[in-house]
Amino acid sequence: MARSELRPVVKLRSTAGTGYVYVTRKNRRNDPDRLTLRKYDPVARKVVEFREER
Fold first, then answer.
1. Helix (H, G, I), strand (E, B) or coil at 11
2. What DSSP letter does each residue of 18-44 carry, written as one string?
3. Pick from 20, 23, 27: which is nearest to 11 by CA?
């Protein structure tokens, strides 16, 4: 079975400028815009905003 294009794999890059990346899937139907999540950045050692990279 092929992976659905409805839930593509996206990279979330840290806005702290550390270059740290999380990889996740998102639902395009519920989140058509770029995804932003607040997650822990181990390089900066704090919770920062991560934005979807294309």
1. strand
2. S--EEEEE--TTT--S--EEEEEETTT
3. 23
Q: Which amino acid type is present at position 7?
A: R
CB 17, CB 51: distance < 8 Å:
no
The edge-to-edge listing of strands for the beta sheet with 21-25 is 21-25, 9-14, 46-53, 36-41
Rg (CA), the chain: 12
Q: Collect contacts of 18-21 with beta carbons under 8 A, ≥24 apart.
A: 18/43, 18/44, 19/43, 20/44, 21/53
At position 9, the amino acid (one-letter code) is V
CA atoms within 13 A on the CB side of 13: 8
| Span 4-26, pLDDT tens digits | 889 999 999 999 999 999 999 99
